[in-house]
Design a protein that fits this description.
heterodimer; A: alpha/beta; six-stranded parallel β-sheet; 8 strands; globular; B: 2 strands
Chain lengths: ~240, ~90
């Protein structure tokens, strides 16, 4: 018999040009604090597949679950988070489409970010060019930037045209981290999405990847979310 | 592997598709020059199977006393093997 779990489990959803290892600086300390953690490693082939794999991944840890999404992972969280096992959502520089929107819809309402001048669409995938990593993860040391580039997960070109299949932020409490120096998802788009979902909002002086450049600050937000959902379940 | 490392791998695992192990590779690339690291304490792929495949590929083979993730527990030895391949592979053109 497993002891009754007092802490929610944490399930991570990565974005483009990344994989589950982008959360390594969060997973190791959270596990040490007693949180069950798992990262959904999906293929960026279609949003429906990525959402389905995330729901399957939720089944590998105890419920209840907090979903943490970075960038496009926010679309995945938005789709998968309607699952009954999910009690909270943490968005990191992330997309959060409404029911009638794709990942791309709101992006088009804000200025195009610098990273998109450094991509190559070839062989059925969107690749981040080596010089694009400065606009993706510019506040990391040179060595780490090269590692981010070398381990990129690459999406199919039409990934952003799909809908998420749910709008979890309408029914679940949410926390949102804005990257003030983000040159991949526009900070004003992040602020707009955070406000629309009624999230508890944090602004960090970071690039698009605060989980790598400011992991302590991101951890603090995840702990806030975990404490809040625990308080809710105790009160209920 | 240190506990932290193996723990992290468990939580960031990529689930495989069920046909990953039934699909046949036609014209195997190991007919090109090949280097092979056998992990003698491997409990995911049998070390003897690794030795058989290395021999069949006529690979330049090294053995390390490692688990299946030899590249994480023995990165220096692994990098050395890759560097050896990179410096001794014949130029293609």
């Amino acid at each position: 018999m497993k002891p009754t779990q007092t802490k929610p489990s944490i399930v991570f959803c990565h974005g483009l040009w990344a994989d589950g290892s982008c959360f390594s600086k969060l997973i190791v300390p959270l596990q040490a604090e007693g949180y069950e953690c798992i990262a959904a490693q999906y293929g960026l082939n279609s949003t429906a597949e990525d959402v389905a794999l995330t729901k399957a991944t939720i089944g590998r840890v105890s419920s209840p679950v907090i979903l943490v999404g970075h960038s496009y992972g926010g679309t995945v969280v938005t789709g998968a988070g309607t699952d009954d096992r999910v009690v909270g959502l943490v968005y990191i520089c992330a997309l959060a489409p409404d029911a009638d929107e794709s990942s791309q819809t709101q992006q088009s309402n804000f200025p195009t970010t610098a990273v998109f001048s450094h991509i190559d669409v070839k062989d059925g995938r969107i690749w981040l060019l080596p010089d694009g990593v400065d606009d993706f993860a510019g506040d990391l040391p040179e060595q780490e930037k090269k590692l981010v580039w070398a381990t990129q997960g690459v999406p199919k070109p039409d990934l952003f045209d799909a809908k998420a299949g749910g709008t979890a932020w309408k029914s679940k409490p949410s926390w949102y981290i804005v990257g003030k120096k983000d040159r991949t998802v526009h900070p004003d788009l992040e602020r707009f999405l955070a406000k629309r979902m009624g999230a508890t909002v944090y602004e960090l002086d970071s690039s698009h990847v605060p989980m790598l450049s400011q992991p302590e600050r991101v951890l603090a937000v995840i702990r806030d979310a975990a404490t809040a959902v625990q308080a809710r379940s105790t009160a209920a | 592997m240190k506990p932290n490392g193996s723990h992290f791998m468990a939580v960031s695992q990529v689930p495989i598709s069920t046909d990953s192990f039934t699909h046949k590779v036609t014209s195997p690339a190991w007919k090109k020059p090949t280097w092979y690291m056998v992990a003698t304490a491997d409990r995911s792929i049998n070390p003897d199977q690794e030795r058989m495949m290395a021999k069949r590929a006529k690979a330049k083979t090294v053995e390390v006393n490692a688990s299946h993730v030899a590249y994480m527990s023995h990165p220096k030895e692994t990098a050395k093997l890759i560097e050896e391949a990179a410096t001794s592979a014949p130029a293609n053109h």
